[in-house]
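Database export, one record per block. Field names are fixed; values are copied verbatim from the stored entry.
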Amino acid sequence: MINLKNKKILIIGCGAIGGAAAEILNELGANVVISDKDELVLDKILSNLDKRQHHKVVFDVRQVDQIKNFIKKVVSVDGLKLDGLVYAVDKNLTASLMDTSLELLQNVMMVNFFAFIEVIKAFIGEEVYNPNSSIVAVSSYASLGADKGQIAYGASKAAMDNSMSAIAKEIYHKGIRINSTRPAIVQSDKQLSEREKELVAMMQTGPIDPKILAQQIAFLLSDASSGVYGRHFDVRGYLV
């Protein structure tokens, strides 16, 4: 049984998946710190949570030189160390090959990979985490085979995925695990493109409910997954 009671979990990126994760973790008794660059998004999520020790910290991960201070601030909001981290920030910019500029590549890689690495480096610092902590990254099925227009996005998620095996081996002695969830098309408010509709048809399951991913994230944060290190959990229906 998943038990996260009184665990302090930081969720960075509060879109559909991060928001759903906050609600599930709240139901499982965790105390969450939610972070996003949009304060209105954070306030909306907080309004749906129990009135426990939940906190918000507005931050844009593109400020990579401030990430260490940001993590320190997260710890200082209640003086308690972290038991888990969810990196659910997702920058998905599509462009044809000829329109994939250096600026676009840097923009996507900065959010999906460079900042991700800096966050982990800050998380594993002294006085930040408790023993038996867990990190969960939200990757994408695009990392396995990017679709047309996903040159930057697929590359950034592939970089994230590829780094995790090395990271898992390096942080094991600290008592920290790292794994990822790797979804295909996720249910959201935005209208699907024609290509996304084709992919959903191949999945045969419909777009993935963020609550399902949130439950997977909760499992990976909990002691129930204590033997899992550096793994990617695909959620793609019958899409091959």
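Remark 1: The mean pLDDT is 92.
Remark 2: The CA atoms of residues 97 and 149 lie 7 Å apart.
End of record.
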